[in-house]
Design a protein that fits this description.
Four copies of one chain form a homotetramer. The first copy, chain A, is α+β, with helices and mostly antiparallel strands. Helix content of chain A is about 30%, strand content about 25%. Chain A starts with a strand and ends in a 6-residue tail after the last helix. Chains A, B, C, D: Pathway: Purine metabolism; IMP biosynthesis via de novo pathway; N(1)-(5-phospho-D-ribosyl)glycinamide from 5-phospho-alpha-D-ribose 1-diphosphate: step 1/2.
Chain lengths: ~500, ~500, ~500, ~500
């Protein structure tokens, strides 16, 4: 996963992009970069400048002097997710910038192409060289080989050939182009801002609307699945960016896991409030829950794993009480604010120091009480296991782990950085394939008194519905129902963007 | 304010102290240091080693190689609070270590002495030189001039001469000494840990019990007001540290603001759970609140300023509902996890980017609703003002700001880093001295629809009571009732530790 | 200018390359990188790993842990020269590594192509994208489009199409390839090393032989102009790397400025000792010098600008004395060892602090004496001017500046980072074109009593001659005689490698 | 060893001190610090500000923003030598700054006290605490206990009690004081500078005159042995600093090793040019040398270990030729400019990589020639041994090592950081005490064909003589003749400043 951001017609495009990327930091912590388009008077054309590096946005752009060299009128930026292996190379830091037949191009991409292997093979056969290991580089290669003259149509030609998930922002000479795949896997939103002093209009494109909030921009609408949007100075003057559209796909496939875990709760994605969806997840989980207060026993305490499950937990408690199943919300776990990327763990007293450094338990609200612990999902299960061990130190009466999504049973080929099938907790134990048996093994492994996942139906009931769509979401990680066929070769995937 | 930590008889004292300081990071972010006591076989005596620096614990001890040079059997550590002016000097980073008549001494100190000016004057008249500007240095000077032979009694002699607030941990050759002033202003707790492999016993002293939790140590008891505790190898063998006591003060004066804001909610201080006290503050605030749901209007939404006011807000909601004043708790503000000390703000789009970078609003739970915003206290009011402006963007029906403590009207001379009287929000406006009028001015300045502070009685009802004590808490910042007379000279205080 | 290094069949290729680059640091201080070839057992093929960054070799590879991730059996490395403008981008740090039709390729290049603009144009028309601004990227593009199957022949195909100066080392899957342009502009040498423990043979390629010395390798011979050398495991077994050859050029064009200034004196380049050539330059300068001791005056003192002109100065003095023109060599200027890349100059007391921070004068050997100051060349003249001002403080009787090469009158299009024609000191003054007049203007500007350049004939007499070659050297910067025609478009050159 | 610098009445005292320390960097590379005196208008008195850190001057003051906080009218600075053990602590970085009875004091000290143990013992008995392990801290303690009112007389009182070597600069409120011990062990010079714009006079004090040169100040005279000089605003107005004098010592004891190795050749110390003395050392070494060109053999080549022995080698060659012993000076060793403090040595191919990274050999001038290698001194012999091994790779006919000083046979108790007696090369071999036998053992160990040390008489003939002094130099390291009795306890010295 990654975060993308772009702004056109700003006096301070690099600074705006910095704040945008900062607010999208949760989408990728490994690397960050900004490419700025500036009009060079001497050369009478737009030139690109860039700054990129490994680390958090605030680390890569630690020195204010960097911004002095990044003046211009438009910029795009990218946050890269932490992945394993070859991606550690600085070659993979986005935006990629390059020159080609029609001038300069820079691209920031969130997603994963499913036919990248085949396309790479075809392109290399034609003599193309690849300098990074990510899918993204394929797109400018295809665009550069298009017979079209306008970057917009070159990009169109390129995107017609790729399959998979992508939301991207591109600088092409003096234009900004935003595109989203026809399935609409990843979010991408369009915003605008009126400069309070000059009245000048800026257009902004970002993975999530929280990036608009931080720079006080306004959400206009989503970039639609299959849309390729062009923003240039004319579009600013007319207040009317123009779009062309890729051939529609048979269905839509918005990533449902963005709502479950990935997006920030204060964002709107796919046109709807993430916070509201998470609340629904909690409500539906409450409806499905069988844990009830026992007569003569203490009230059930609902604790969330902060901060990602807070909203679901609140929804859970509210619905529970509505259903006459008394439960109280408590902050039983506190998240440490000082955990940073550079946190060392000298001596490693015990294997659980990592969880101990990140979370603290509030004994008073846990001790001798029946606890329902709400978490959004379980991937490998190692953190959950250690967290339960930590909570046990407060000596609760029981720990009932409730997950606000179904079990993750399949890898993602559309950009989410899940491990391979083998590493998923759901495949760790040898079972007869019976689901109940599997969940029992997981319960035992994690060490809780009971384990409850939200049902698939509960999940689907929680997310917004879209009119005139037979299918709106990709639920492949939970259901194995992959919207785009993925051939075998691709399944031992290594890289996501 | 500062955090102190000490451990005696550990195989990894520097690592333990690192984790202890890490968990006490909220008590001081400006600087950190560790002094280790190691037995030098060649010299047949204990020698001290140290590492200190400006910044967070994880920044000062960023490289694991540091720990390779810090082997030993005991260690003390210190987190320094960010203060203004001369304290920026590296000379002020604690623990202070020194040699004197009886050998080596290192000291880590949390508190503020009220007779430091007089003592400094007396000592300098006697030819003493001071290398730092903090109060702390006075104590080893006094100890070094004592006629006693044992460090424990030298420290006793020194502490009899100082007045004010202090909780401290000292390494004196092969002994560790912990001391707390007779008023008991600042917390200090004693813990122990049995090594799971060797069965060896370690004693630990820390400002808050959260430092015990992270290294899986156990809370034994508080260091009592006026207690000077000696831990050496004999104490370990006998499982019995010994204590001597300073002459008792007329009253006790535990800092009530530690409960209101400063301490971590998962800690026990002054023998009681901080979380529980904060919940009481919320409950009492609910009892005093006059904001009620209006007929035909939306339910009142209670939002806390995360994370410090979360618990009070929960207590508020629960009590409110008990009193049949319906209110719902919501996460209307989200705290950004990536705000670090090194956060730059290029371009400064607007004055509120700082608040915008730290908090996000969740529009859905705020829009068109009457909001009760719970915060623990207001010092200068600038952050509160900008936060309200941010929340206004979600267009709530009304914002009722409820503070879970009374107005801060007086500076602290016992270690809390409040500004001078003049800079306190309560003294910013010219009034006739009428309290209602003052609060109205503050309400207007901050820009809320109503402003409610917890009453002093409400505050006192929320904190634990101690038997046989006429007065247990220092409430000077709220009441002006200073437990220790502070002469004029000291009142234009510059330095706290 | 840049430095290149490669080693094949070593247990520690990254470490060897580090030392090699370290010894070639004078050839480029802006950036450094290493790419390692390692056999991956799981994937049963050679994979590349890399580390690159801006700064000195010792800065980029500051942490030893970097080397832990760079195990393998072969490696190439590159030092990049400090240039202006777009090259600051990390995109331009070499070696470039990439994947293409035939697998993996990495390239480290020293030189400058003269038909790069035309080739870029042609390639981009064909749909090629360029990610860096340097010439180097052209070569892998050409190789990737070759119909040949073997990397060696692909490289051959590529190099047949490029014109200009290049010495390069390439990793192509499990092979190392070294190539030098048919004119032989830049040096490139082949060496070998027998591991003292295992008896294993390593082959090494480097810009200068000083890189062999530091790792105790042995110089075998030069890579010949036009030679493309292949080293693989078979070549190691047979102790016989194989070569193919590019079509010969009409003449050779070894860069004479490498001997004058650029190469390290302890290196052998173009098969001959740099030290010896510099000594010859000094001798010939002495023969041409007209400065002689005046009767009844003090002996002439010869001072060199350390360290680059030391050898020439020694040669000058020796020859001078042979010719019965008494002169004594003195260390009148001392070079400061602590000047680093990160040297700041707060306050800037005066414009000459930079020269003052780098050189100190030894008054005793300068005062009241006639000085002959030997420097290797003058480019812009600013440093020389300030250095003379500094020497004047010692109050010498006279300063006669002798330059051990002719005036630089033309830009270099083959890799030397000279400024444009306009910025050269020789073109700064309006003259009638009369050379004597020009030199007088320069003398006046720099502020010396007399100024003497070595004649072109003196220069040519100083360098080694090669049998059967009509022309062996490129002297374009001094003579304007460009071995390869450079079309107008290229002359406003921006980039060198 | 250390370097000290002070400037009074400057508009840019911190910047001036930065450049002064930069030019004195050779006197200490471990740590650096600057203390500035600034007049605070609000408090109506001079306050001190400081910045200190571990590393080179250019590392400690890497950021220009540091200087923005260091405005004032006077400053002192200190370079600390790299020593072993406890000195690594930041507590030991000078200048020490402190407050005491009479105000503020800051001190920068070069030297070593011989009665520090006794004084520390006495002071600690009186209740004094020591925060650093260096001698320097003793002086302010003694000053603070003086009954005098004026800092100048307090310092006088303090210095009357200490014995040993010291040259120091002190800031005392609004005065600067410079002092040198009665023996005059360490150099200390007085300079002045007229601001070219304002005509304002600044006074400067520095360890060596090279610190005057860099800021274009002028050398006035030495601070005399036993002199305590006071510079304040009155002294500036009158152009007349005033002095008081310590009781004279029986003899003088200027450190002769400063001339041999330590000081910079372009400095004047003890009123004389270091370069000139080094040249004399070379001349006298030539007179004593028995190596002569053999008939029918190649001319003898004289090579110096750069840069410290360059001047001696030149003197040697000139004298040799005068004496009709033909010899030619050559740059046979080149010193690498890129060796920095942070140089890592991954992999450590061989034990001599350190010497290989620092020096390169120029084969052409060494091969098959008889070499006289000039070095200034041998301490432990490890570097010399490896350097010889490196030179042997060029296959010289013979290597005759000539040392321009006598064998070091005794430790220094006056500030030079020699190892203990046991670690000196001269004590490494068991001999009958016969000097010839000892030198033969050393020759064999280092691996040279012959080894020649300058005689003591040769040394004494090389240094300037002072009128009316029976004894002017300390030669203890060569002769064991210690000017100040050192009691046994002190002899296992640990710390120098």
């Amino acid at each position: 996963m990654c975060g993308v951001f772009g702004i056109f017609n700003s006096k301070t495009p690099a600074e705006d992009t910095f704040y945008g990327l900062y607010s999208l930091q949760h989408r990728g912590q490994e690397a960050a970069g900004i490419v700025v388009a500036d009009y060079n008077k001497a050369k009478k054309k737009t030139l690109f400048k860039q700054h990129k590096g490994m680390g958090l946005v605030s680390e890569v752009f630690r020195e204010e002097t960097i911004f002095e060299t990044l003046g211009g009128y438009a910029a795009i930026g990218h946050n890269r997710y932490s992945t394993t292996g070859s991606s550690k190379s600085t070659n993979n830091i986005q935006p990629f910038s390059l020159t080609y037949r029609s001038g300069s191009l820079a691209i920031a991409h969130n997603g994963n192409l499913t036919n990248s292997r085949a396309l790479r093979r075809e392109l290399t056969e034609l003599g193309v060289i690849f300098q990074a290991s990510s899918d993204t580089e394929i797109i400018p290669h295809l665009a550069a080989r298009s017979r079209e003259k306008e970057p917009l149509h070159q990009i169109y030609d390129a995107l017609r050939q790729v399959q998979g998930a992508y939301s991207m922002v591109i600088l092409a000479n003096n234009q900004m182009i935003a595109a989203r795949d026809p399935y609409g896997f990843r979010p991408l939103a369009l915003g605008k801002k009126i400069d309070p002093l000059t009245g000048e209009l800026s257009y902004i494109v970002a993975s999530e609307t929280c990036a608009f909030d931080i720079i006080q921009a306004e959400y206009i609408r989503d970039i639609e699945p299959g849309e390729i949007l062009l923003i240039d100075h004319l579009a600013v003057t007319n207040e009317n960016p123009t779009s062309i559209y890729l051939p529609p796909s048979k269905r839509k496939a918005r990533c449902i896991f963005e709502y479950v875990y990935f997006a920030r709760p204060d964002s709107f994605i796919f046109k709807h409030s993430v916070d509201k969806v998470r609340r629904n997840l909690g409500k539906n989980l409450a409806r499905e829950s069988t844990i009830e207060q026992q007569p003569e026993k203490k009230e059930i305490t609902v604790v969330s794993v902060p901060d990602s499950s807070n909203t679901a937990a609140l929804g859970f408690v509210r619905e529970s009480n509505k259903l006459n199943k008394p439960a109280r919300f408590e902050h039983g776990l506190i998240r440490n604010h000082y955990v940073g990327r550079t946190f060392i763990q000298p001596g490693i007293h015990s294997r659980d120091i990592k969880v101990r450094s990140k979370y603290n338990i509030v004994r008073g609200v846990l001790t001798e009480r029946p606890i329902i612990l709400i978490d959004d999902s379980i991937v490998r299960g190692t953190t959950a296991k250690m967290l339960i061990k930590l909570i046990r130190e407060a000596d609760p009466e029981a720990i009932h782990l409730h997950i606000s999504s179904p079990p993750i049973t399949n890898p993602c080929f559309y950009g989410m950085d899940f491990p391979t099938k083998r590493q998923l907790l759901t495949h760790m134990f040898e079972t007869t394939g019976n689901e109940e048996e599997e969940i029992e093994k997981i319960r035992e492994y994690i060490g809780v008194d009971s384990l409850k996942y939200l049902s698939m139906q509960g999940l689907l009931n929680s997310v917004p519905s879209f009119e005139n769509e037979t299918c709106s979401y990709c639920t492949a990680c939970f259901s194995g129902d992959y919207p785009i066929q993925v051939n075998e070769a691709t399944t031992d995937k290594e890289e996501n963007d």
